[in-house]
Every structure is written in C-alpha cells, then in structure tokens.
Amino acid sequence: MKISILKYLVLLSVLLLFANCRSRKSTIRKNNSNTAYKQPATSVSKPIKVQKIAEADAVLADLIARNPNLNENTLAYIKEYNDIAILKMLEYKIPASITLAQGILESSSGLSRLAVKANNHFGIKCHKSWEGKGIRHDDDARQECFRHYNHPLESFNDHSLFLTERKRYAGLFDLKLTDYKGWAKGLKKAGYATDPRYPKKLITLIEAYELYKYDEFDETFLYSGTVVKKEVARNARYIVVRKGDTLYSLAKNNNLSVDKLKWLNGLKSNNIDVGQKLYIE
Predict the structure, then answer these.
(1) Tens of pLDDT, residues 77-90
(2) Structural domains for the chain
C-alpha cells in the first residue's frame, strides 16, 4: 500500500512538472519585429559617416567658379551644412535656403560664441520647455539663457522642431518651399527676431549665395562618394537588422525616409546585413 502511494506521488510530481514546462513554452512567442534599443549613456563618442549630396556640391562649386570673391567663411559653412539643410527640408518642409540663411546669420557662419561654445547655430533661447543644458549670453537682455547642444546636427534638428511645433509659425507652412521671401518676412512677423531688417538680411544672403537653388531638391538626389567624418556622441536609439528586413521597411516602421536612414548611418547603398546596427535618431 505504501509503495502504491509512493508511486502515485512520484507520477503526480512528473505530471505536474511536465504541465508546468508546457505552460511556460506556450507563453513564448517568436518576436519578428525590430526592437529599438537605447545606446548606453556611457558610450564614448565615435565617428559616424555623413554622406554629402552630389548635386549640392555641384551647386556650390558652380557658385564659387562664377563668384570667387564671396566670403570664404560663409562658403565653408554652406559646404558643411547644405546637405543637412536639404534633408531637413524634405523632412519638415522648411526651405533649405531659409535654414542655411538663418544659420549663417545667427551663427556668423559658425564663428559666433554660441556656435563655438554651445553648437547653437540659430540663436534659440532656452524658454520654459527646454530641459537640456544652457549657456548664458547677452542678447536683448543681459545673460539670457540659450540652448546648448552636443553637436551642430542637434541644433539643426531643434531648429526644425522649433518652427514646426509652435502655432505662431503655422502660417509659414502654407507657403511654397520656393517662396523664400515670404518665409523671411513671415519669420520676422511671427517674432523669430526683433531686428526690423531681419527679412532683408535673410533675402540678401539667399540671393548672394544662391541658396534658393537648394529649395529645388527633392528625394531623387544622389549621394556622392565623398565621406565626411563627424564626431557624434551616440547616446541614441538604434535597431538591429533581422532576416527579411530592407531599408525601406525599416525606414517606414520608424517614420523615417530611406535617405534619412542612410544619412544617419553613412550608407552609400541600400545593402544591409542581418545583425547590423542601424541608428534611427
């Protein structure tokens, strides 16, 4: 009798163990989606490759050939950031000419104190909503707080967000991308700057350096073979390529254009490999 009870208890234990294993297995599901991971904040800065846009380089080269006496610092600034301005235009519908002209004017072609010390190229102040670092600088009042960025690319991105997320600039987006004069006047009217000559200064820069030509770009542009290395702190989100993924599907799933995804990761072609890490911001 004791043996029978012992056998019964052993058999019951085995059945319970088997049932528990099946229950645990049934809760496991294969995840085929790409999970976005956060790069550790302690990661060191490392170079990423930023592709230049071939046609943008050609536009600038043509300008320099016809106008050899233009300001060298301003030309260098345009060469450095014209591709970024074009990409921001395609993403946020802000004319590249306006972005470049504002950057040139507000940062003194990248040589101002705010640009050098804080990577602030657009003179954007902290305001109440800003949670990042700040830098004190005399402007309309003494020692006002201006936004501090880790890299100029962050300043360009924040400039786009600054204009798109504030209602006072909403009317600008009813204008055509090629209407740089309307944008210049609209920025002043909406309160971006207090200088009454602000629109004229922007328009003068746009016409002198033919920045309006960058407003004609669409998503058919080609990347050149030139690779520019920039040091960027990669405290950013990334995804890992899985079997069956394409640049198009990954870009679509993360609300990016294919060109933006390529630009973020320095890709020359649409080829990607399983297990490859791709930054999405």
Answers:
(1) 999 899 889 989 98
(2) 37-45+223-279 (3.10.350.10), 54-216 (1.10.530.10)
